[in-house]
UniProtKB/TrEMBL annotation:
Organism: Faecalibacterium duncaniae (strain DSM 17677 / JCM 31915 / A2-165)
InterPro entries according to UniProt: DNA_repair_put, DUF4130
Protein name: DNA metabolism protein
Family matches, as Pfam families: DUF4130 (PF13566)
Amino acid sequence: MSGQSPVSPARKLHDADVVYLYDGSFEGFLCCVFESFAQHELPFAIWTPERETATLYPVKEIPTDRAKARRVFASFRAKLGEETEFLVTRDFLSGWEDKELRIIRFLHLAFALGPGTVKRRGHPEVAPLYQMKQSLDWEVDKFQGFVRFQEHDGMLGAVIHPKNYILPLLRGHFCARFPEENFLIYDAVHQAVLLYQNHKAQLMELAEPLTLPPPDEKEQQFQELWRQFYKTLEIKARHNEKGRMTHCPKRFWADMTEMKEELK
């Protein structure tokens, strides 16, 4: 590929009866992009080890090569612009099962048509990326308001169950909101933790599920006060269950101090 762009427009793109298997990292995904363009192929599926299942198609393991990943990523901004780079990077955090294939299909189109491709929101290969972004943005907005912390030995802890991997997108908000506190937010779906301690934040993937300790007596008292405050605010005569479900969908309730009792 000497003298060529890291990712060049595909000319004889074809659907390939092959499954890509990568390590689940963003760099690993960029190597899948490299392979797809190098072979001018669209794989049948792209899996991580957690999503691997029995298949009649041959499985091609895509090793993570940081040099290749850097070349591919650099080509996004150089060839397609900052908006495309942002959209692809953000959508990789999506919980869609086929997000990798959707993004690769979009990239083949974008490198063929140029930077303006990202503006074609109605195109069948572009629209799914905005749907993924909309889902991410919606969850981030909801969880910025719905995360409920409990105190455990001087540290605040919270558990969330998002559909998308949004911890990287919540980091800035909560670190700015609680700059002097030590806290962790545990994503039980993706088995990952956002830890903020001594003014430093880090994201960690866990090998085993994390169980937070039960609240002590003092914390239980504060939780009861919060539940009473929540109930006191409501004007019973104006109760609107449909409106409440719209603004606070039921799937959030299990992790919210004031709502979880209603699930019993």
